[in-house]
Amino acid sequence: MTERQTKLEELLAHQQQMLDDLNSVVTGLRRELDMANLEQVKLKRTVARLVEYYESAEGAADEKPPHY
Q: Is residue 50 part of a domain?
């Protein structure tokens, strides 16, 4: 094998390793993004429930008690 072929094979091996490393990073980031999106959905639901609760509580506070 020539020196040039050896260098090309080494370069290819390094590039393959770099590609594998980058793929691992992207996969990990995707997993984190999915978890963050799920948490955001949960938080939005919680906020919506709290807003609904407080809006209904405000309406009840404006009403006079039945004994008036």
A: yes
In a domain, 44, yes or no: yes
The two three-digit tokens of residue 47, written as one number: 């906020």
Question: Domain of 45?
Answer: 29-58
**What pTM was estimated for this model as a whole?**
0.64
Per-residue pLDDT of the chain (68 residues; tens, 9 = 90+): 799 999 999 999 999 999 999 999 999 999 999 999 999 999 999 999 999 998 888 766 666 666 75
Tokens of 63: 């009403």
Distance CA 58, CA 68 (A): 19
